[in-house]
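User: I'm new to structure prediction. If I give you an amino acid sequence, what do you actually give back? Let's try with this one:
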Amino acid sequence: MKNNILLTLIITALFSCKMEQKQTTGKIESIVCTTGMLGDAVRNVVSSDVKVITLMGPGVDPHLYKATQGDLKALTDADVIVYNGLHLEGKMGDIFEKLEDRKIIIAASDGINKEELINNSEFKGAQDPHIWFDVKLWSTAVKHISTELAKQVTDSVANEIKANAKKYTDQLLELDKAVFSNLNALDSNKKVLITAHDAFSYFGRAYNFQVKGLQGISTTSEYGLKDVSDMVNFIVDRKIKAVFVESSVSKKSIEAVVEGCIAKDHNVLIGGYLFSDAMGEYGTPEGTYIGMVKHNVKMIVTGLK
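Assistant: Good question. You get back a string of structure tokens that encode the predicted 3D arrangement of the chain. For your 305 residues, that looks like this:
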């Protein structure tokens, strides 16, 4: 109830503010992105003089995120808003819909064919929002963002955005090849990734992994004793060496699984932490999308080898 009241207040405040109609000057000065992955993508395609703001920082779970007064000001002041879509941002999606006739709104997931999206088993008719775990698919989303940004600016600036996007997506395609190569160091029977919530389905499909999460696609879903018991039995039966915690999700659920395995005389390790719905600290390698992916792959290979 409190979340709904807060959302209503934010939307009301947004519409009571004096905001210009959609950007038509051919210049973008500020862009607000919801997640770190989106902020990093945008920084790689726009010029350095464009102010890029990320609402959700390191360790923040977008499924549970609550908009703040600071977010309200950032959204009000922005020329462009970039979000993931597919319900990743929860109730904030309603805010973006309300702003569509006043702001330039770009949903990264709109650039991906529906046939390439994984259906969300928790919510009928919805898709899994964790598209960045397939690097090649994420490069498609980045292309869409850059194409939409280029439409809003002068020809010379548009050409700069396109050139930057080409350079960055080429880097992503090289990263995709490197991920394949590094993960192939694992025997096929070891390619099982177990985490706190089911965020890695795109990763599993792209890189031939079986993935299992204790919680569902959204961390708003709850897990119970049966979920823990079923996971413990799966790990023991498959003799899985390691499970993983996530930087933006409580590790208590995975620790419960580890304790259950030990009780059954199977010593499963916590193979390290993975960045799932948020990246690392800004200014560190893991604070970039490419660095985050490299970190995750290293943890997975080291933990399961």
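You can read the tokens as a compact description of the fold. Here is one thing that stands out. Residues 2-179 form a domain with the Rossmann fold fold (CATH 3.40.50.1980).
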